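[recover] target loaded
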């Protein structure tokens, strides 16, 4: 095996990887040489390995469409126990040298390197599983990915353009996703729901529906795993899960509706974002790169109420001109009357099925 020029070997999870000696270690990461590797995304790849171990994954052929060093596909093949044929593709020839070297380094029979623009690759090949991991927005590639998916395929996607989706750049979000974001304490949940809603609308153009399997926000990115559902009825059903959000900054009331109004954010996905049954099968954490962080997130996702939208403890207490109560004490009190959970979006946030009026009435008791 020939090591690519400028490569070093490191271990991520239980996989050895050739990566460029100079690489990103935090933030969204930037390409330092021609080949991209970001150490901070190891957690994101850990979750891919776990997801692939889950019962819903029976994929026979899979594509890591923007593979760079191949880190994600290589780790899934090496650590999940899948027997899938995994194509790792990148348009850059130097990246493909890394992919080939990593397949050889790990002696992966199911791995195959490919050099192509993913759009032309997916015009010629179809897959049971496609992973899309772009710099920034996935929007320009979504139609190609859906068209390169077999019936009921699974699509995984990262979006690192959190600023437009979470409302910092409103016009950019409207141009990319044809949806209006909302800047505010729960802006990241709005952004994730806008992204899922956008995918539902793009799939509907092909008479396909979407079923979100796992959706989350971490660090500087959104990540979604979804299953495509075939036929026009599935597409219609997905579209019925789209709605609009109005947020009154004076009263803090968040209202979700199927009706459009001028001030509303959206369209966005208002149905569940995660299928909790999948999380039960994501259990083999020991050999991952960040087992403790994976366990923490799995626990948050399992227990999180899947209702829009979360509240911030600080937000409500400043509204009431009081200091924030201890979060667990507040949640215990809410549970005497309704449901409550923490949220993975924020360590000081929570979700509940109580109305805002009911919720605010409990604050004096726990303050
Ligand atoms: C963010 S990196 C992928 C990181 C990788 N998935 C990982 O986990 O380390 C994006 C990669 O997409 C590649 N790329 C960009 N546009 C592409 C296209 N149209 N077709 C195929 N690859 C593309 C870039 O060369 C780059 O290597």
């Amino acid at each position: 095996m020939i090591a690519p020029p400028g490569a070093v070997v490191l271990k991520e999870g239980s996989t050895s990887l050739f990566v460029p000696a100079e690489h990103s270690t935090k933030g969204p990461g930037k390409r330092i040489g021609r080949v991209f590797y970001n150490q901070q995304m190891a957690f994101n790849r850990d979750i891919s390995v776990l997801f692939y171990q889950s019962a819903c994954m029976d994929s026979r052929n899979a594509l890591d469409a923007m593979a760079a060093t191949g880190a994600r596909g290589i780790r899934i093949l090496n650590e999940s126990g899948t027997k899938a044929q995994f194509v790792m593709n990148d348009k850059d020839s130097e990246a493909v040298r890394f992919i080939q070297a990593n397949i050889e380094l790990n002696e992966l029979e199911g791995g195959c390197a490919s050099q192509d623009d993913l759009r032309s690759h997916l015009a010629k090949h179809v897959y049971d599983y496609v992973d899309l991991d772009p710099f920034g927005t996935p929007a320009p590639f979504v139609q190609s990915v859906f068209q390169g998916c077999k019936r009921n395929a699974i699509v995984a996607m990262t979006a690192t353009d959190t600023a437009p989706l979470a409302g910092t750049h409103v016009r950019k979000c409207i141009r990319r996703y044809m949806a209006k974001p909302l800047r505010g304490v729960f802006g990241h949940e709005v952004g994730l729901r806008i992204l899922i809603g956008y995918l539902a609308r793009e799939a509907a153009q092909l008479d396909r529906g979407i079923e979100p399997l796992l959706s989350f926000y971490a660090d500087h990115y959104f990540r979604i795993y979804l299953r495509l559902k075939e036929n026009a009825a599935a597409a219609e059903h997905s579209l019925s899960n789209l709605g609009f959000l109005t947020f009154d900054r004076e009263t803090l009331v968040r209202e979700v509706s199927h009706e459009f109004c001028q001030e509303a954010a959206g369209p966005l996905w208002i149905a569940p974002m995660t299928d909790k049954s999948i999380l039960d099968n994501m259990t083999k954490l020991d050999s991952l790169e960040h087992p403790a962080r994976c366990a923490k997130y799995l626990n948050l996702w399992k227990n999180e109420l899947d209702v829009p939208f979360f509240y911030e403890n600080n937000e409500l207490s400043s509204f009431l001109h009081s200091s924030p109560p201890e979060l667990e004490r507040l949640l215990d009190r809410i549970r005497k009357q309704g449901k409550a959970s923490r949220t993975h979006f924020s360590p000081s946030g929570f979700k509940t099925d109580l109305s805002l009026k009911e919720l605010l009435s409990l604050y004096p008791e726990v303050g």
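[recover] notes: The CA atoms of residues 33 and 176 lie 28 Å apart.
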